[in-house]
Design brief:
3 domains; about 575 residues; about 25% helix; six-stranded mixed sheet; Rossmann fold; RNA-binding; alpha/beta; Ribosomal Protein L25, Chain P
RNA sequence: UGGGGUGUAGCCAAGUGGUAAGGCAACGGGUUUUGGUCCCGUCAUGCGGAGGUUCGAAUCCUCCCACCCCAGCCA
């Protein structure tokens, strides 16, 4: 863990609380936990929570537990347990030996429930699900007490034991905490704490027929693990009184506190399991790791580095107000890290053939190129040059606009790490005027890209030798939705999917790229000079190169050109 | 007056009675063999609104407004 935790941490309300707890001696260490439910893939929103919980533990010299919140066997699967661990690890965090499952505590939790029964603070309720809802009342009207609320302690014990042994059908009974049916907070109106589920659990198999609810299990698990600060999202604020109630009523080994922070929303995408699963299952994207998705595995495949995601999470801060973070923030974090660490390679996305007419036909030569101007230690490589090369179509104009520094008839530019070339002619298509091929002369004295007479050129182009290049498939990704907040806008139309960007993926084939690319392993992150940061897809191989574009480079020419067009 | 929350720049966000940090974006300029990077500069007389307390208020008080969450045997 480097990079982001070196910087002095930005203050936030949770750090303020921890600082107080530490100076007042309320705690001597900080124990947090990341508690995913293993029922889906992690996304960038989870990354914020992971960075917060593990980051705090790291900064304060404490610990962060990875705890799977597996209290609902119907929804949870072992498959997700593995992917979540992989993602947390990939992000760069280490839980050491502290890997836990709520299901580890099923026995303790059960015993706590019996404690409540013995104290007359819990009872078996045999109302149907609909009846329980009716008895709960509404937001503005108080609820009514269940007729089963006055069962004797012995009867409750016997019934709960029967529930546990699987003697009753699902839905026939539940165990409820006996709190207050008139409480203004609905969570306190005798909440269900155990329900009968005859389902096989991914870890405990068929050992149990009753499973604790989140409200009952979560805080007690925190207490059992000695968690000091239990961080969750805002929608659990209403659950805090209940969280506290269980801890106050039961003989717990420690006293954790719950604090709530606002979950992150990212512009032009969606971050809810329900919506993500729709996109995957209905085929709008090609899987959980589709590079257009904000899932951790999608971002990984897209080419984001773990450090860039950590920096992003650090930078957006932690607060309690609802926020929609701008995509440019994530892109900035990606460029910042990738600029420092990714090797440069040349590749042409939209090729235009250039013939260097005064370069000997049979010749070729090797030129030296630096791998990363930001990091000399990354060394240099050889790039082959020859009479026929490809440049980017957009780097040539027959009628260049003002301030266009690239190639045009009669213009001289530099080929990066190679020579100065001057355009002396071209072939255009009959009728359309489309440029098919360009002819240039090179200046042999400018080898390497500088002129002995001190002559300057304003443009530098990337290029690839036609005789020595490889071909690659290049996948250009764009924002998944056409609107910043598809969830909110979906209220105006029928469905958030109406706002999907139909051009979020553009596939380019046979793009000429430096042969050097074949030396990189799948998953490698590189910069295609002047075009952007790319990642070799998992399906890429030296024989079939596939590049995924992570993000473009900033393009001030595109901005200028747009401005010129408007003036 | 059901209960619980939140409002500081286009976006994120510090600030906790002493005169509005920082980042992203944007806009100027410098350096540059990536129109990249880097560097320099500009960007809230203003903190949801209105009153009040105070020598002094984004911070304290009062009222108001807007938005979010809650009626799963989901988490």
């Amino acid at each position: 863990m480097t990079d982001n935790h070196k910087d002095k941490a930005v203050s936030n309300f949770i750090r303020t609380i921890i600082d107080q707890d530490l100076t007042q001696g309320k705690h001597s260490t900080v124990i947090t936990r990341f508690p995913p439910e293993p029922n889906g893939y992690l996304h960038i929103g989870h990354a914020k929570s992971i960075c917060l919980n593990f980051g705090l533990a790291l900064d304060y010299g404490g610990h962060c537990n990875l705890r799977f919140d597996d209290t609902n066997p119907i929804k949870e699967e072992a498959e997700y347990v593995a992917s979540i661990q992989e993602d947390v690890q990939w992000l760069g965090f280490d839980w050491g030996e502290r890997l836990y499952y709520a299901s580890d505590y099923f026995q303790e939790l059960h015993d706590f429930a019996v404690c409540l029964i013995d104290a007359g603070k819990a009872y078996v309720c045999s109302l149907s699900q609909e009846e329980i809802r009716e008895f709960r009342g509404t937001l503005k009207e108080p609820g009514r007490e269940s007729p089963y609320r006055r069962r004797s302690i012995q009867e409750n014990r016997d019934l709960f034991a029967g529930m546990r042994r699987g003697e009753f059908p699902e839905g026939s009974h539940v165990l409820r905490a006996k709190i207050d049916m008139t409480h203004p907070n609905l969570n306190m109106r005798d909440p269900v704490i155990y329900r009968i589920l005859h389902a096989e659990h991914h870890r405990t198999g068929n050992a149990w027929h009753v499973y604790p609810t989140y409200d009952f299990a979560h805080g007690l698990s925190d207490a059992l693990e000695g968690v000091t600060h239990s961080l969750c999202s805002l929608e659990f604020e209403d659950h805090r009184p209940l969280y506290d109630w269980f801890l106050d009523e039961l003989p717990v080994p420690s006293r954790p506190r719950q604090y709530e922070f606002a979950r992150m929303n990212l512009g032009y995408t969606v971050l809810s399991k329900r919506k993500l699963i729709q996109l995957v299952q209905e085929g709008y994207v090609q899987g959980w790791d589709d590079p257009r998705l904000p899932t951790i595995c999608g971002l990984r495949r897209r080419g984001f580095s773990p450090a860039s995601i950590r920096n992003f999470c650090e930078r957006i801060g932690v607060g309690k107000s609802f926020s929609l973070v701008d995509m440019s923030m994530l892109e900035h974090a990606a460029r910042e890290d990738l600029n420092r660490h990714s090797p440069r390679v040349m590749g042409v996305l939209d090729p235009l053939r250039v013939v260097i007419v005064n370069y000997p036909k049979a010749d070729e030569e090797s030129l030296e190129a630096v791998n990363n101007p930001e990091d000399p230690e990354m060394g240099v490589r050889e790039v082959l040059f020859s009479r026929e090369i490809y440049i980017e179509k957009e780097d040539f104009r027959t009628d260049p606009p003002r301030k266009y520094f690239r190639l045009a008839p009669g213009r001289e530019v530099r080929l990066r790490y190679a020579y100065y070339i001057t355009c002396v002619g071209m072939v255009t298509e009959q009728g359309t005027g489309k440029v098919l091929e360009v002819y240039c002369r090179y200046d042999p004295k400018t080898r390497g890209g500088s002129s002995p007479d001190g002559r300057k050129v304003k443009g530098t182009l990337h290029w690839v030798s036609a005789d020595h290049c490889r071909r690659a498939e290049v996948r250009l990704y764009d924002r998944l939705f056409v609107t910043a907040d598809p969830t909110a806008d979906a209220k105006k139309r029928s469905d958030f999917k109406e706002y999907l960007n139909e051009n979020s993926l553009e596939v380019l084939r046979d793009c000429p790229v430096e042969a050097e690319l074949a030396a990189f392993e799948a998953g490698s992150r590189i910069q295609l000079e002047r075009k952007g940061y790319f990642c070799l897809d998992y399906d890429s191989s030296p024989d079939k190169l596939i590049l995924n574009r992570t993000v473009t480079l900033r393009d001030s020419w595109a901005k200028l050109e747009k401005k010129l067009a408007h003036s």
